[in-house]
Write a structure and sequence with these properties.
By secondary structure, the protein is mainly α. The chain has five helices and two strands. The chain has a two-stranded antiparallel sheet. The radius of gyration is 19 Å and the shape is elongated.
Length: about 170
């Protein structure tokens, strides 16, 4: 099932998700360094990373929702996509609460905030696995007829001129 939201022939949602995931994970690491070693220099950066990660996550969610709405109802992909979406919303809420708890003093992070970030990071790992299941196992967001010799997406040519001839599915070498 091809993605509905594309830029230069590639699905937008998978292009955006590395940013919020990386920002939120790095913020967690910086806050853990602070708690373990009483290192204050990274906590302010973590504060701003969380804000940027939340904004990036919300932007990625818009394109994820567009793709999810295109998945046929009653399929395993629709169900997994819903779980993936709900878990990601929970992640954003947990990090938002952690961010608000230190809003008055961005450099002063407490254990509660870090625990929320840890829980959010764990949930993000599960949700990321579900996202991989959607793409790698169920083919959500993958061009019909994708194969190892498909033309560049910038050519505006389909992944395969003979979609019906790709009996083995994506990655078939002819």
């Amino acid at each position: 099932m091809e993605s509905r939201a594309k830029l230069f022939g590639h699905p937008i949602h998978p292009m955006l998700i590395p940013f919020p995931l990386g920002l939120l994970a790095t913020a967690l690491v910086f806050d853990l360094i602070h708690l373990l070693f009483d290192e204050m220099s990274l906590t302010r950066a973590a504060y701003y990373m969380i804000a940027a990660g939340i904004i990036g996550g919300l932007l990625a969610a818009v394109f994820g929702l567009i793709d999810w709405l295109a998945i046929p109802g009653g399929t395993r992909a629709k169900s997994i996509g819903l779980r993936h979406m709900v878990l990601n919303v929970i992640v954003l809420v947990l990090f938002a609460v952690a961010w608000f708890l230190r809003n008055d003093e961005p450099h002063d992070v407490d254990t509660t905030s870090v625990v929320l970030e840890l829980i959010g990071g764990g949930i993000a790992a599960v949700s990321g696995w579900l996202g991989g299941e959607l793409v790698d196992r169920l083919g959500v967001g993958v061009d019909r007829g994708a194969n190892l010799d498909a033309p560049s997406s910038l050519t505006n040519r389909p992944a395969s001129d003979d979609v019906a001839g790709v009996a083995g599915g994506p990655g078939v070498v002819r």
